[in-house]
Design brief:
alpha+beta; 156 residues; 21% helix; 3 helices
Length: 156
């Protein structure tokens, strides 16, 4: 009886331990530098250095709305990844930065950061700053996190 109870308890405890998920922390998913990616004819981008590829057709449609010529004219995007694993995407003529979260075989828009609501960005560039992503648009500088864009002082 005691032997049977002991075997049941050991089996149950091993089953419980075996079913719990293992979490490895801390983890740093950040990219040291932005990746400039070409948009191909099928609306795909491929960041070969970081082994990630995805479609941007829906993102371009959201950014440019009814202006399909601007969406089709987008040949290049800028892409960077933060420490938590969120992707930041923007490009010339964009007014926003899109923060993308990774899911099962897909990326979804976690947030849309309004950078230049009045006019399109001329020459956006990302820079990795550890705890945040920095965005330069000409002489304007912004501190980006997954949910906010804050203007920063300073000229480049």
């Amino acid at each position: 009886m005691k032997k049977t109870l002991l075997i049941i308890m050991i089996t149950a405890s091993l089953t419980i331990v075996g079913c719990s998920s293992l979490q490895l922390q801390p983890a740093d998913f950040s990219w040291a530098a932005e990746e400039i990616v070409d948009v191909n004819g099928k609306g795909m981008v491929d960041a070969k250095r970081y082994s990630v590829a995805f479609t941007v057709s829906a993102l371009l449609a959201q950014e440019f709305g009814a202006d399909s010529a601007a969406a089709k004219g987008t040949k290049e995007l800028r892409l960077i990844r933060d420490k938590a694993g969120f992707y930041y995407v923007t490009g010339k003529k964009f007014k926003n930065v899109y923060v993308l979260a990774q899911g099962d075989g897909a990326l979804s828009v976690a947030s849309t950061l309004s950078i230049s609501p009045e006019k399109q960005m001329d020459d956006p560039k990302f820079d990795q700053k550890g705890s945040y992503i920095e965005l330069w648009n000409g002489k304007e500088k912004f501190q980006l996190t997954k949910g906010a864009a804050q203007p920063l002082g300073g000229k480049k």
